[in-house]
Amino acid sequence: MNTKLTLTLEKEVIETAKKYAKEKGQSLSEMVENYFKLLTVNRINLKEDQLSPKVRKLRGIIKTTENVDYKQMLTEELSKKYGI
To answer: For the chain, what are the domain ranges?
Structure first.
């Protein structure tokens, strides 16, 4: 279930974030939601219906024989992507 959130930010920050989100093919809401998920990745276990449609579609398509810590990998990649 989506819920509306009102944030108060500097105008320049919002404009820059909108441009960045557009370059990445995301809405600003998706970008903020992903950022919050990144911050809280170790605090919650996401259920299937909480994943975005894009993630649900891609989930499980990569197979590996190695023991991979996907949460750690996700955290590292999102940190690189968003410069956290």
So the answer is: 11-82
